[in-house]
Amino acid sequence: MAASSPTPGGGLGAILAAGDRDYLIRNSGEQVKISSIEGDTVAIYFSASWCPPCQRFTPKLIEAYKELTSHGKSFEVIFVSGDQDEEAFNAYFAKMPWLAVPFSDSEGRKSLDERFEVNGIPHLVFLDAKTGEVLTDEGVEFVSEYGIEAYPFTTERINELKEQEKAAKDNQTIHSVLATPNRNYVISNTGEKVPIVDLEGKYVGICFVVNGYPPVEEFTPVLAKIYAKLKEVGEKFEVVATLSSNIADIINEHGLDAWEGFPFNAEKLEILAEKAKAKAASQTLESLLVTGDVDFVIGKDGAKVPVAELVGKTVLLYFSAKWCGPCRAFLPTLVDVYNKIKEKNSDFEIVFISSDRDQSSFDDFFSGMPWLAIPLEDERKAYLKKKFKIRGIPSLVAIGPDGKTVNTDAKTSLAVHGADAFPFTSERIQELEKKIDEMAKGWPEKVKHELHEHELVLIRRPRPYGCDGCEEMGTSWSYNCAECDFDLHAKCALGEEKKGEEVNGQEHAAAPAGYVCEGDVCRKA
After folding, report:
1. Where are the beta strands (DSSP E) in 163-294?
2. 327 in the same domain as 275
3. Which of 28, 156, 179, 361 could bond to 356 as cystine, CB 3.0-4.6 Å?
4. Which residues of 198-218 are buried (b: 16+ CB within 10 A; e: fewer)?
5. Confidence of residue 525 (pLDDT cuts 50, 70, 90)
6. Quick one: CA torsion of 248, 253, 258, 263, rounded to 10 degrees?
7. Does 525 reside within a domain?
8. How far is CA 374 from the centre of its chain?
9. What's the number of CA atoms in the CB half-sphere (13 Å) around residue 127?
10. pLDDT score of 249
């Protein structure tokens, strides 16, 4: 949690006003003077209608807002949109009962993004309205976990809640977890009442499920088989639901083999890890893409292409969907790189693995791709997403000619190095990085650039970054202002004389920085 600290520049007016604009708006179009905002605590909500995690979180925030204001709490929320057009902004904002920075003020919205270092959405920053002090920048987590109990969202209140949680955990018993004042039993699927006291002395899994939810329907049969296996060998184990917060992940990763990790201590998990390594060493393309009699992928018009025809090639597994804004933005770059690689390397292919929700969306999105796909309703999709732990899209996983996984983040490699990243192995990426390192020896250590007021210093970057000039991804080197967290590619910082050269490891523009949606957040790539 971010420590409370003064926000540079003072109170709300200094933070929210921009140029001649000294007001915010309601979804009715009414203008509200910033100076008239009433509230001891103000939340700045960075969100967008295209972002699935935002769509899930916004109703929670609306509920908390309405409950707090109905109880007379001094609280306000201000929406800062990341939408692509005003129509989308208006439709999204229409559902919100609070204020917003006008969509037309793009510079004001960008300034707030930079001020609060917003690298992913939804992002919720709580401020002391009088001083502008940041109370916490982890508002999404706190509202999701504590709801209105976290009000007024100060460090002291959050610490108080955490202490209460710790005390409850320290004094936890199976009875305190499962019983209520009016119930001291659980039930079997036959309706039989089982006293909670009968569970004492056993390992107990607490399994939270929702009927009809596809991941739950996939997970439950596997858990049932593991349960039966443990009962068969005489383990004192019962399921009311998970033994620890990551048991579901362990079962998802190892499938039925997960029972060998019981009771899921460090020693047993090490055994599972070694078994997983052995399985990875024996991986082939057929073991990934062939299931029973299903031994094909599809081309255009549903034509079946045997997986055997892909053996010996470098294959990219492309996890994507039409509904995903970042996926649509990334597709033209991927098509361009695909065509460039295919011109020189026939031993290359891409297989599209869709997360679309209906056939028409799949067909429409796939029609713009020159490669192959796994059918929309194919069960192999779920297996591949689980195996490669796909938490966000777009994602690219590279499989080498021998069927082994060579790169689980080929998207970054491709976005930074373009077609030169082929065949996406660590050796190839390191080779490209060394080439850039050699070129960097001839670049000036410091430059001034019209896009930024401060001097920029050439630094080695340990992780990919987004260029604030061309908004493309970069790695290795950037011209950086540490004070402002501002970066430029060398090709952008050094200007026209470097155009056309392979300054940042690619001949032309890489993929837009964009966003990647992962779990509960859409992050800037």
Report:
1. 185-187, 193-195, 203-206, 237-241
2. no
3. 361
4. ebeeeebbebeeeeeeeeeee
5. low
6. -50
7. no
8. 23
9. 27
10. 63
Distance CA 291, CA 503 (A): 45
ω into 370 cis (within 30 of 0) = no
**Cβ distance 411 to 317 under 8 Å?**
no
**Mean pLDDT of the 396-419 span:** 90
* 3-class secondary structure per residue, 214-250: HHHHHHHHHHHHHHHHHHHCCCCEEEEECCCCCHHHH
Are both 18 and 151 inside the same structural domain? yes
Q: Which of 78-87, 175-184, 443-452 is predicted with the least confidence, judged by mean pLDDT?
A: 175-184
pLDDT in tens, 59-80: 989 988 988 888 888 889 999 9
Residues 6+ apart with CB under 8 A from 284: 311, 402, 403
CA distances from 232 to 182, 228, 237, 324, 388 (A): 34, 6, 11, 45, 31
Q: Which domain holds residue 31?
A: 12-162
**Rounded mean pLDDT, 326-334:** 88
Q: Are residues 369 and 306 part of one domain?
A: yes
Residue 514 has pLDDT above 60, yes or no: no
Cα three-residue angle 223-228-233, rounded to 5 degrees:
125
Residue indicated by tokens 């604030």: 468
Consecutive H or E run containing 344: helix 325-344
The number of domains in the chain is 4
* Confidence class for position 196, pLDDT limits 50, 70, 90: confident
Give the span between the Cα atoms of 128 and 246, in whole angstroms: 36
Look at residue 21 in the predicted model and tell me its pLDDT: 86
Place of tokens 């509920």: 63
Q: Say what the pLDDT of residue 461 is.
A: 79
Mean pLDDT of 347-370: 92
Q: What is the mean pLDDT of residues 409-424?
A: 88
261, 280, 299 - which closes a domain = 280
Q: Count Cα neighbours of 388 within 13 Å in the Cβ-side half-sphere.
A: 27
- Residue 463 has phi, psi (to 5 degrees) of -135, 160
Dist. CA 455–CA 449, nearest whole Å: 7
Contacts with 375 (C-beta within 8 Å, 6 or more apart), sequence order: 298, 302
Select from 386, 364, 387 the least CA-distant residue to 376. Answer: 364
Do residues 16 and 152 share a domain?
A: yes
Q: What is the SS3 assignment for 2?
A: coil
For residue 164, the surrounding DSSP H or E stretch is helix 155-170
Give me the DSSP letters along 105-151. Answer: -HHHHHHHHHHTT--EESEEEEEETTT--EEES-HHHHHHHHGGGGT
- Give the CATH number for residue 423: 3.40.30.10
Tell me the DSSP string of 47-102: E-TT-HHHHHHHHHHHHHHHHHHHTT--EEEEEEE--SSHHHHHHHHTT-SSEE--
pLDDT digits (tens, 9 = 90+) for 272-300: 777 777 777 788 999 899 988 899 999 98
How far is the first Cα of the chain from the last one, in angstroms, to the nearest whole number?
Answer: 23
